[in-house]
Amino acid sequence: MGDPADLTIAEAGRQLRDGGLTAAGLLDAVRRRASMTEAQLHAFLTIDAEGAAAAAERADAALARGEDLGPLHGIPVALKDNMVTRGVETTAGSRILAGWVPPYDATVVERLARGGAVIVGKTNMDEFAMGSSTENSAYGPTRNPWDPGRVPGGSSGGSASSVAVGSALGALGSDTGGSIRQPAALTGIVGMKPTYGLVSRYGLIAFASSLDQIGPFARTVEDAVGIFEVIAGHDPSDATSYRGPVPDARAGLAEGPEGLRVGVLRELSGEGNDPDVLEAFERTVDALAGAGATVTPMSLPSCADALNAYYLIAPAECSANLARFDGVRYGPRIGGDTVEQMMGATRRDGFGPEVTRRILVGTYALSAGYYDAFYGQAQKVRTLVVEDFRRAYADVDVLVCPTSPTTAFRVGERADDPLQMYLSDVATVPVNLSGDPGISVPVGVDRDGLPIGFQVIAPALGEAALVRAAAAVERLAAFDARPALATSEGAA
Known about the structure:
With 492 residues, the protein is α/β, with parallel strands linked by helices. The protein has one domain (4-267, 278-299, 388-491): Amidase signature (AS) domain (Amidase signature (AS) enzymes), CATH 3.90.1300.
């Protein structure tokens, strides 16, 4: 057997259960990988050595007693640092929360623990999840294991990078406008955004509450499904939590593409994508058709305006959500002669430029005299997006397009051009506006050897169809490339 950090979750689980591997040994393997790669990648903000060791010990003891807690039992998992963890610092990548140690766990953290997962640590992210490159973290950027001179995508870049390099076998991220799917595409792994409301947001530090959704990163579709099964389900602590049964996503793993009705999103699958991205996408669509799927070009006109609507709705919601960070209740405080001066100084010092920009945009969009012209109009576009998707699903089972119009760009390349950075999300934001599930699957590499992602989108609660199509794409693409840093030799 090679390095255990190179195993999938499913294979590691089999070896844990047949006695060929221990949770403690698996944890040691991913720690060794982190020790060799963190200096280059900076995927983690906090590594919880003591807590992870205790969890691995409990997982091994439970297996020895014959207790099987599910697909994540004994598996090392990383958490994006906007999910609160009792007793472990949670910063959301911001100076304004530096040193804050929550007194409770997010619901997803509780569910991971009940499922026997071993939480390795908290991963780096764009501050308050606002960014597409993980360069906006107050604690420095995360880099891409395929090329440390390039970004891993964002805002969940630390989680994506940790899974791609093997310093965790799975991870959780949050997806507000593509922050799971886009970094998954740029790092060559699988990233899944479930239907809005299927995974509790209780304990997730909010960016835009009507858009945020927690979901998994993994190296395979099967592994992503395993994580989804553990974290999904109704939570009375989240008012937006779906009360019905969780879709059987695993049912889609065994089905092939024969008879699957696939719609190709014209607005997102043509001009605007890099030639290598488009070639890999079209090759995969042709493979689906050759394997028995029915492929139909589909036009959803509202997708052309979705990005503009998103960048009004998301800042408007963030301006309200971030008002609570004022130096009174959380994190550091900068002194002032009055409460107003103290709050102003604390927020100026604590928030980075991208967060400040979005708060200002959101506040303006919600202000008297501008609400109807900006925020109100954006919500009308959102309604059009929902209606366009609903009409499309009368004719197809899933929709597909490239996940990102480009592969990983260089660190600093778009730092001074917010518009180009925002365009990274053009193919992912429509799904957040509609609330539907989406997943990114790696299907190839470009001329520079950088991974390319293929996005599958399904109707709300259509996780079985989503996984069916994604698993078919995964089998047809047969993507098995790994970054050099994901091998013991490359990391040394």
